Amino acid sequence: MTTLAEARTLPVSGTVPFSRTVHAEWIKFRSLRSTWYTLAGLAFAGLGITALSMSSMGAHYASMTPAERMDWDPTNQSLTTYLVAQLIIGVLGILVVTSEYATGLIQTSLAATPSRHRLLGAKALLLTGVAAVVGQALMFAAFFVGQTMLGAQGVPNASIGDPGVLSAVMGGGVYLAAIALLALGLGAILRATAGALATLVAIIYLVPGFAGLFPAWLEGVLDYWPTLGASAVLTTVPSPDYPDPWLNLAGMCLGVAAVLTAAFVLFRRRDV
Fold this sequence. Notes:
The chain contains 13 helices and no strands. It is an all-alpha fold. It has one domain.
């Protein structure tokens, strides 16, 4: 009788609020040391790279020709830290999924949340919030640190109220959040940290690096590729190659959505 009564009081998995699933994911997220190590590395490397690159910008600007100074973009100069930040925040997105496969905790998570799309959806929602906040904070911090250092060297700098500046800084945060979700999708598809990280490195570094070797008919696709067309949103000086950077970023987000869709399908169909 006691066992039957207790069973009747247990919640049915389908009736458990989605907020409780998100809260459970938050507990797992903040309890991992790797989470805090990755976030600390993001802040340290992100601002460190900004400080290092800005420290010699005075001499670089002095050596520029008048024509080159016409295209001077101090905002973009201080936001180039995204080149490394995207990899670190990508690692965070991968670990949200693959850390559970590595430790076997995924079995427990699926037992607690049999509805798999709810589990992966909770992970994606949590990561989106964290990546958006952390990425945006990094972009604003990098901007203000960079502009302060440029001003100290007597180099023309920008203020947050200048045309296009706030849009570029905010765009950097959106870009990093999209990369984090891309990494989560890769982690769910490949279920291995090393494989997902290698794929992410190929996407954000190798393909753009060898873009000049691809045939002409692929140029339209590369316009929406990370670190190429999509990253043009971090500039304030219009580029003739990417005249509509926010459209490029939107195209990249559609690609990320496609990867996430594949991740949800595979996550539901696999045994584990």
